[in-house]
Amino acid sequence: MRQPARRTALKWGALAVAGGLVTLTAACSTDPNSVEAQAKAGDRKGYVAGDGSIEQLAVSERGAPVTLSGTTLEGQPWNLADRAGKVVVVNVWGSWCPPCIEETPALQKAWEKVQADGRPVDFVGLDKLESPETGLAFQKANKVTYPSLAYDGGVPILSLQGKASATPTTLVLDAQGRIAARVSGPVTTTTLLGLIDDAIDEKA
């Protein structure tokens, strides 16, 4: 088994400097139109600077499995329980969020890579604060081929155990559905593939 170079056992809220992967990134506010968000942004773009943290939890530090389900932007049912035994990448995004737009090609590239390699991995997006029609139009325009769940009043996001307060946020769930890693802010293809590899190596 490859020795995971990036794994760092940390409690949530700590900054993980692991394998040189931590970079300062931008994250959108929970509500892009709030007075607080616009005041923090200064430029009235509706987003604020994130802390850029990349966090990983040792198996002993993880909580209960996530129970995520919902309806895709295409109107199809989706349930994490159907992906048992796979590593699952969950990305919270919105087409109104500039850092989300920035990271979209990196996520798609990572998805294509794990598919080409036949890795036991699934991706799902969680669209936020917009209609399914708006989110789907963005996905099609950007040639995103993995599914995203509709916002549905924020119900799917509530299942993420409070670990997706920033937008974008990317979570890597282990084969048991527990949160193994979190990136607050835009993620790069290299970073995401490294976190996925670590989670797969645990399963091996």
Percent of residues in helices comes to 25-40%
Give the tally of β-strands: 10
Estimate nothing, just give the exact number of structural domains. Answer: 1
Content-based structural category? alpha+beta
For the largest beta-sheet, the strand count, sense and barrel status come to: 6 strands, mixed
Could you give the order of strands across the largest sheet? 3-10-9-6-7-8
* Dominant shape: globular
Count the helices. How many? 5
Mean pLDDT reading: 82
Q: Give the strand content.
A: 15-25%
- CATH superfamily placement: Glutaredoxin
Distance between the termini: 7 Å
Alpha carbon gyration radius? 16 Å
Description:
The protein is an alpha+beta fold and 204 residues long. It has one domain: Glutaredoxin (3-Layer(aba) Sandwich), CATH 3.40.30.10. The protein contains five helices and ten strands. It has helices spanning 35-41, 98-117, 132-141, 155-158, 189-203; strands at 26-28, 47-49, 54-56, 69-71, 77-79, 87-93, 121-127, 148-149, 169-173, 179-184. Strands 3-10-9-6-7-8 form a six-stranded mixed sheet. Helix 2 (98-117) crosses helix 5. The longest helix is centred in the middle third of the chain and has 20 residues, at 98-117. It is globular. Residues 1-26 form the signal peptide. InterPro entries: Redoxin, TAT_signal, Thioredoxin-like_sf, Thioredoxin_domain, Thioredoxin_ResA/DsbE_sf. It holds the Pfam family Redoxin. This is Thiol-disulfide isomerase/thioredoxin. Its main location: other.
SSE layout:
Elements: E1 26-28, H1 35-41, E2 47-49, E3 54-56, E4 69-71, E5 77-79, E6 87-93, H2 98-117, E7 121-127, H3 132-141, E8 148-149, H4 155-158, E9 169-173, E10 179-184, H5 189-203
Parallel strand pairs: 6-7, 7-8
Antiparallel strand pairs: 1-2, 3-10, 4-5, 6-9, 9-10
